[in-house]
Write a structure and sequence with these properties.
The protein is of the alpha/beta class. 43% of the residues lie in helices and 14% in strands. It has 18 helices and twelve strands. The protein has a five-stranded mixed β-sheet with strand order 3-2-1-4-11, with helices on both faces. Strands 5, 6, 7, 10 and 12 form a five-stranded mixed β-sheet that branches. Helix 3 (42-105) crosses helix 5 (134-145). The protein starts with a helix and ends in a 5-residue tail after the last helix.
Length: 506
């Protein structure tokens, strides 16, 4: 010990031998200092040893119980966490599948309530928007698209949002696909005159997916006899996408001599783009097609034959569905076009008596309205009845306005079941204010020109539109007088009585 430490150290306290003995025995030892035996300590030693053993056994039992308790607690926590992980993983997978099904099938409640146009909608009877069972839907799509199809692929999602359908499959199909003949067998027995009117097929597009557009053109070129196809008029309504410019021009070389390409200098919308195309047409009949269609076998002859017999007959093919996810071509039932007091177009069922008689399901069907995307009309008659309302914006309601004008001003509108054209039923995921505004504006022009006193039924459904501007309609009112058109009451009585019976209902 250092001298300084020794100077500060406390003196040692001498230990009594009895104290030391008891201390040692409490530790369970029987050894003592040399020369000191255990004889004088025997009575206390046995008792202390016995008590010490009991204390040790009690202490070990307590430690064992504590270990078992903590082990059980840890096992319980681990089990709980494992269950939570497995459950979360299962729910996440389920939600992913559900979201995929929702992404595929849901157009959104808001979009269902918007005014709809043309064959963009799937031909369902009465257009009931019922979402299919999610498990069934996912199963069908899983089977059709294959187990390896990646719904989270950014290319798939981007194409779906931009174009409204599966562009990955569209690219794989390329410019040509096999279209199944969906006509009724009785149609195969029909024969058409060798001499038929010629047709100018007018296709307007704006930022259409390249392959879908080119399949439309290819199907027309491949499935239309050249002697009745005067020309294809392609109107580009100021598209932005690069592949619709030089690349498209290059691919159109195969149609040289049969195709005219018109590129608008500014965005005109569907109505004015069709008028531009019609002004350049030279065929006897104007056939308007959407830019994402595929025509079927012998699609044009039945339309031209009907117009050849009556130049004031406007005709539409039955519109088959090309599924937006699988691009599967699906046959549609025989339906007719209709609408409600909101002026929403819908597909309606056909009465069985309309298909009675020797022609059966091939008989032309009277249709109160057309979808508008696909129809044929005599070129001179189109000009005679006032073409389209040039005051309408973009698209929407032009199909109903033309339908009313045809019926009320001396023409007829029919669906020809032996003519079939497939149409991609695009999904729409965004609410476009510009489009909604245009459809509202167009509807109001129709209402104030053609519905007479029944316009109050329209405003009963949408009272907020009474004070909304709709532009100058004096030219269209004058056209109605000049053509000697009948009243809307006549239309309800003779063409679409079902609409009047729904008066006052939503």
């Amino acid at each position: 010990m250092d001298p300084q430490d020794a100077a500060h150290a406390k003196p040692l306290i001498p230990l009594d031998r009895d104290v030391l003995g008891r201390f040692c025995n409490s530790l369970g030892t029987v050894s003592f200092l040399p020369g000191q035996g255990p004889a004088s300590f025997q009575p206390g030693y046995a008792e202390i040893k016995k008590q010490t053993f009991k204390n040790a056994r009690f202490t070990m039992r307590g430690i064992t119980v504590q270990c078992l308790f903590y082990a059980s607690l840890i096992f319980g926590i681990w089990t709980t966490l494992s269950y939570i992980y497995i459950y979360h993983n299962h729910v996440s997978n389920l939600e992913t599948k559900t979201q995929e099904a929702e992404l595929i099938w849901s157009l959104g409640k808001k979009l269902q309530q918007q005014i709809t146009h043309g064959p963009q909608q799937i031909p369902r009877l009465h257009m009931r928007f019922e979402k299919p069972d999610e498990d069934e839907t996912a199963g069908k799509l899983f089977f059709k698209l294959g187990k390896d199809f990646n719904y989270s692929n950014p290319e798939f999602i981007d194409g779906l949002l931009k174009y409204g359908f599966n562009t990955i499959l569209s690219k794989s199909l390329g410019s040509d696909s096999k279209v199944p003949d969906t006509r009724n067998k009785m149609c195969l027995q029909k024969r058409y005159p060798a001499k038929l009117p010629t047709a100018s097929v007018i296709i307007c597009f704006h930022n259409e997916e390249f392959n879908a557009l080119f399949r439309t053109l290819s199907s027309v070129g491949n499935l239309t006899p050249h002697y009745i196809l005067e020309e294809i008029i392609l109107v580009d309504d100021m598209s932005d996408f690069d592949d619709l410019k030089e690349k498209l021009d290059h691919h159109l070389e195969i149609f040289r001599g049969k195709i005219k390409v018109i590129r608008n200098k500014k965005r005109e919308g569907l109505v004015r783009s069709r008028l531009i195309g019609a002004s350049r047409a030279s065929g006897d009949v104007l056939v308007f097609l959407d830019s994402h269609c595929e025509v079927n076998t012998a699609w044009l002859q039945p339309l031209l034959h009907a117009i050849a017999k009556d130049s004031k007959m406007v005709v539409c093919p039955l519109i088959d569905v090309i599924d937006s996810m699988t691009l599967e071509y699906q046959s549609s039932p025989v339906v007719r076009g209709a609408f409600n007091w909101h002026l929403d177009f819908k597909w309606d069922s056909v009465y069985s008596y309309e298909m009675d008689g020797p022609e059966g399901p091939t008989r032309p069907i009277r249709s109160p309205a057309m979808a508008g995307g696909i129809f044929a009309i005599n070129r001179h008659y189109f000009n005679e009845i006032g073409q389209y309302d040039k005051g309408m914006d973009l698209w929407g309601a032009e199909n109903l306005e033309l339908s009313l004008r045809i019926w009320m001003c001396g023409g007829q509108l029919f669906i020809i079941p032996c003519s079939r054209v497939g149409h991609i039923s695009k999904q729409r995921f965004s609410n476009q204010p510009e489009l909604v505004k245009a459809m509202t504006y167009n509807n109001l022009r129709l209402v104030h020109v053609w519905l007479d006193e029944y316009k109050e039924q329209f405003f009963l459904q949408q009272p907020g539109l009474k004070s909304v501007a709709y532009g100058n309609i004096s030219e269209r009112v004058e056209l109605r007088k000049r053509l000697g058109c009948k009243s809307f009451q006549w239309y309800l009585d003779n063409v679409f009585p079902e609409l009047e019976t729904s008066k006052g209902s939503l």
